[in-house]
Design brief:
BH3618-like; 5-stranded antiparallel beta sheet; 87 residues; single chain; globular; mainly beta
């Protein structure tokens, strides 16, 4: 797998649950990097991306967590969306 910034592929925003903000010691969102897992396939059009469980990195403190989002709240985000929709 590899990682990518989901906002470069589509409109992407979510509320970071307080539990994860504490784990990340997040004081300012400017230090947070949001990444999505991409499972690479050959050809690349068969690859899938996980928008439903982003990885959030506190770049300043070098901490990261994977944040499972609520499927009902974020129904537009899939766990294995074909990347071909965004190429």
């Amino acid at each position: 797998f590899t990682l990518t910034e989901p906002g470069k592929l589509r409109s992407y925003a979510f509320d970071l649950p307080p539990f994860y903000a504490v784990k990340l010691e997040a004081e300012a969102s400017s230090y947070l990097l949001v990444l999505a897992i991409v499972i690479l396939q050959n050809p690349i059009e068969n690859s899938v991306i996980n928008f439903l469980a982003p990885i959030v990195v506190n770049r300043e403190k070098k901490l990261l967590v994977q944040v499972p989002l609520d499927e009902q709240k974020y129904h537009d985000f899939g766990i294995a969306e074909p990347i071909s929709r965004y190429l």
